[in-house]
Write a structure and sequence with these properties.
single chain, eight-stranded mixed β-sheet, about 375 residues, 12 helices, 3 domains, alpha/beta
């Protein structure tokens, strides 16, 4: 009897399964494609263009697979389910994001790309050797380097303190006249280094930027500006890059803060703006993108009371950490020029030859310094 019962159930099960696949596939086909995932904070793949050449080369198949993965019906729901199940299994990492004991998120960083790091050091030394003006170098440690006790046991992360010192040593051994900022040492003296970095994002907070500014002023012999006249604005509900990668929905959101510093002129990527802050980005998940409208090739900020006849100027060669720092620098200099080599293929040497700067600040976080592939653009 049991065998006959099983034989009757088999067709019914097959029909149910096939029906589910058909309905789901139909719904997936009819569901409109999304351009962006707010949960993952990234642009999603769109339907690829078909050509025979792309099919033969295999490019179309790869692109179509990426498109299907990105546009899968209920993708955000399944991502959330996966993240929650991994939390229940007490996993301490996901997608190269480490779960700290305190509930913070950190980037997993076990190996330095030594070959690329050496190339970048060589490019930097050539640039510093060829530039006659005032130079300053600052390598920013990433959050985990200052909060080792918060990491899971047995995690052998890269020693950034030693790595930064090695870069500085290369500058000293080349007999280059350059101010080397001890950002690691300054940050390590803060009673709670966690205030210097976001919990869900790889950037420093406004407190991290201010602490850096204090160190910059100390080593450059400048007076630290008084920030009390400026409103400190706080934006709730910031979920950063580490959250977008790990989808750890149990983590608490950050508060994104900045000082509302008025400027007389703002030029971002060659276009004049009313403000250095893209207020519309504060309504999205990528709130940090509000600073300087993201990573533009060349940005120019002019202080509210800049000297029009003989302005002081600072050039910052930077990654995205400096985007939130930039307005603070206008309290020290009349004009602040910011160059992001990732978005400025050419024109850097022309800028140096046509504009006089009081200081050139090369400021990168350690992980970006080691892996960036655009330092060769310092020569163009």
């Amino acid at each position: 009897m049991k065998k006959k019962h099983d034989q009757k159930m088999f067709p019914l099960t097959a029909v149910v399964v096939m029906g589910f696949i058909f309905v789901f596939s139909l719904a997936d086909a009819l569901y409109p494609d999304k351009e962006r995932s707010e949960l993952e904070n990234r642009t999603l793949a769109q339907s690829p263009t078909f050509t025979v050449d792309r099919l033969v080369s295999g490019k179309y198949t790869l692109d179509y697979e990426e498109y299907i993965n990105d546009q899968f019906l209920g993708r955000d729901f399944w991502i959330d389910v996966k993240a929650k199940s991994e939390e229940l299994l007490l996993k301490v990492e996901n997608n190269d994001v480490i779960y700290g004991k305190s509930g913070r998120l950190y980037g997993k960083y076990l190996n330095v790309p030594d070959a690329q790091l050496q190339k970048n050091v060589d490019h930097l030394l050539r640039f510093f050797s060829s530039y006659d003006g005032e130079k300053t170098l600052g390598i920013i440690p990433n959050a985990y380097a200052l909060m080792k006790d918060d990491l899971p046991l047995g995690l052998n992360q890269v020693d950034q303190q030693a790595g930064i010192q090695s870069i500085y040593q290369a500058v000293e051994e080349d007999n280059i006249d350059c101010t080397l900022l001890d950002i690691y040492g300054t940050f390590s003296k803060v009673s709670d280094p966690g205030t210097l970095y976001y919990r869900t994002d790889h950037h420093w907070t406004i407190d991290g930027a201010v602490t850096f500014l204090e160190e910059y002023c100390r080593q450059k012999g400048l007076t630290m500006p008084d920030l009390s006249p400026y409103e400190r604005v706080e934006v709730q509900g910031f979920y950063g890059t580490y959250f977008s990668k790990s989808k750890n929905t149990s983590v608490k959101p950050d508060v994104l803060s900045y000082y509302d510093i008025p400027l007389s002129e703002v030029v971002i990527g060659g276009e004049e703006k009313d403000s250095w802050l893209d207020a519309s980005a504060l309504e999205t998940r990528d709130k940090y993108g509000a600073f300087l409208y993201g990573n533009q090739g060349l940005s120019i900020l002019k202080a509210e009371n800049a000297d029009p006849e003989n302005p002081s100027r600072l050039l910052v060669i930077k990654d995205s950490y400096s985007n939130s720092l930039a307005p603070l620098l206008t309290l020290l200099y009349d004009e602040v020029y910011l160059v992001d080599l990732r978005s400025m293929p050419t024109g850097f040497q022309e800028l140096l030859s046509t504009t006089q700067f009081d200081d050139v600040l090369f400021l990168y976080n350690y992980k970006n310094f080691a892996s960036d592939t655009n330092f060769y653009r310092l020569s163009y």
